[in-house]
Amino acid sequence: MPHLATIYHLGIKELWSLARDPTMLVLIAYTFTVSIYVAATAMPETLHKAPIAIVDEDGSPLSARIATAFYPPHFLPPVMIGLPAIDAGMDAGDYTFVLDIPLNFQRDVLAGRTPAIQLNVDATRMSQAFTGSSYVQQMVMGEVTEFVTRYRAAAALPVDLALRARFNPNLEQSWFGSLMEIINNVTLLSIILTGAALIREREHGTIEHLLAMPVTPAEIMLSKVWSMGLVVLLAAAVALVFVVQGILRVPIEGLVSLFLVGAALHLFATTSLGIFMATLARSMPQFGMLAVLILLPLQLLSGNSTPRESMPELVQYVMLAAPTTHFVALGQAILYRGADIRVVWPQFLALAAIGAVFFTIALNRFRRTISQMA
Amino acid sequence: MTPRGRDAHAPFSPARAWSYCLRETLELQRDPVRATMALLGTAILMFVFGYGISLDVENLTFAVLDRDQTTRSLDYALNLSGSRYFVERPPITDYAALDRRMRGGELALAIEIPSGFARDLARGHQVQIGAWVDGAMPVRAETVRGYVQGMHQGWLLDQAQRRLGQDGATGAATIATRFRYNPDVRSLPAMVPAVIPMLLLMIPAMLTALSVVREKELGSIINLYVTPVTRSEFLLGKQLPYIVLAMFNFAVLTLLAVTVFGVPVKGSLLTLTAGALLFVIFSTGFGLFASTFTRSQIAAMFVAMIGTMIPAIQFAGMLNPVSSLEGLGYVIGRIYPASHFLTISRGVFNKGLGFAQLQDSFWPLALAVPVILILSIVLLKKQEK
Q1: Whole-complex ipTM
Q2: CB A126 within 8 A of CB B139
Q3: Which of A166, A189, A300 is closest, CB to CB, to B134?
Q4: Domains recognised in chain B with CATH numbers
Q5: What percent of chain B has pLDDT over 70?
Q6: Which of A99, A198, B102, B162 could form a disulfide with A278 if both were Cys (CB 3.0 to 4.6 A apart)?
Q7: Best residue in B133, B149, B175, B284 to probe A by mutation, most A CBs within 10 Å?
Q8: pTM of this prediction?
Q9: In this structure, are residues A100 and B157 in contact, taking their beta carbons and an 8 Å threshold?
């Protein structure tokens, strides 16, 4: 049975060793303030300042009208270029879209000959190319239809589509970006802090001192989990209240406290994961490699960069074992959709289960590694 | 060999740099786990991301609150569920259920068809269909919005044709969309060239990040303090083996891209290789930089992580083009070498370009190399304070 007092004192020791590394403190402060602000404000809407160029071979009032339809914030002001400049401009990535309005376009439209406009899309820029091309089509067709209706009336069915976005009416990316950045940083920091702290003790031999004392591996591990978890939890709370709510003015629908409970569960899982990784690695350089290899998928495939449902099914299932997936889901539900515990309990349960499994595995490995060293 | 006496005072002695290079190579050789992880790990990650990150938004869940329950209102719902983008969930019974299911994130889209929909439509009265999109993830919401609008228009045209006998389908003009460089608009050919820069940034940076600070923490840095070796010899000598390893890594990744992923190198391989060489000199240099001003391995690892991961994923143009970014993120994206190498990688892989068309991306890369190296040399102390 682990002793609470021992765990408490060992944890305090961890906090002291962190406090004596000023670079580390500055870095933690940076990641939870400046870094979140920059990432949140940088993220554009899907279609934001999309670079577009127009080749106007027609030079008619209609083609001029089409050109004026594109303006910020969705598009950069269109650049008027000549036909030969299309390839070079697209090759260099200067434009994502190039619209080519053919000669006699207006005349053919009015004559009812249904002429075709060519839209070139740089398809290597996936998300922008996708949403953008349908946007461009809608706008061009809208302009053409409006132009034509002055000459002949078109009948339309009187069905209106009232489309509203819930939880983030203007689809502001900073709302999304800031939260995702907090989640990323919480994961990154907790894994590195616990894992590296353990490796350092091994490399410096201070773990020998611990082993000579009447403490058990479980106590050592629990002390690292609570102390480093607490540091990261505090930093996340500060970031959420001061940076996200205070400076970025993101309205938070749900309870911040419920989110922090979720974060604590998440931290239980990630700190255990950090210790597990530290038992696998023999030295700090190995641990560094391992950290990159594990953190990248944890972040990119958790559903906070691209939607989960569009990933291959196998990836979706495997990522159910990752704490970040559930943390992202509960974070979005609580903070944006104002969900309460009746809605997000499955995620809480999943996090607790993953944490318990990680902790048990890590503790077993930690016991074995220690007995090998002694 | 130059005589020892003269060599000791040379500002840069290749022989001394070489001996540090050998020393570092030995360290790398005798810890094969690390090099194996770097090579095998990047290969695995390339698989994971090549297939895992899909930018096509599909399989979106939606449900209908149908207060009309006529064939026409059913037809409207079928119009959505029949597409490959949407998957229908059990119908919504009332507003409370709508609210609960959207809050839980079960539904990406909820549609409400008012009672009397078919009747009003037949009489030519104005009717309104309500649609709610989950805005918690803006990118996804934007896409859903586009899909729904498009399908609504399609349904209207279809109805006009079928019921009213109007020829509404042919508009005044058409738009022929040409998706260039990636005609099938598949994620894979777009993602693979974007993943290579990310991996060649993070892994080499993490490999070098600990090399100097580790000597500080374990005490062997004393060799730098007390021998005639200069800071530049020390750093460049340490860097060289990692550049070689990273270039080998690059070769593996390119080979995988071509053979396993079937993403051919359409442009000049030499240009790509030259770009990669400059880029890995930068990324290993960044690791050294992180190693020179920190005092603990944890801090160095952390600097290397946040200094590479965040810019590589968010600001380098992997998911959003740099020109669309805002504020400081835009500035970082413009300067940071990963964006330029991404342009080169996509240019060569997808667009079939060579050096002539891509040289604008080479200059910032070529400039970043001396900047990061000089910074590292300046920040490394020849004596502990």
Answers
A1: 0.78
A2: no
A3: A166
A4: 19-53+186-379 (no CATH), 60-163 (3.40.1710.10)
A5: 91
A6: A198
A7: B175
A8: 0.81
A9: no
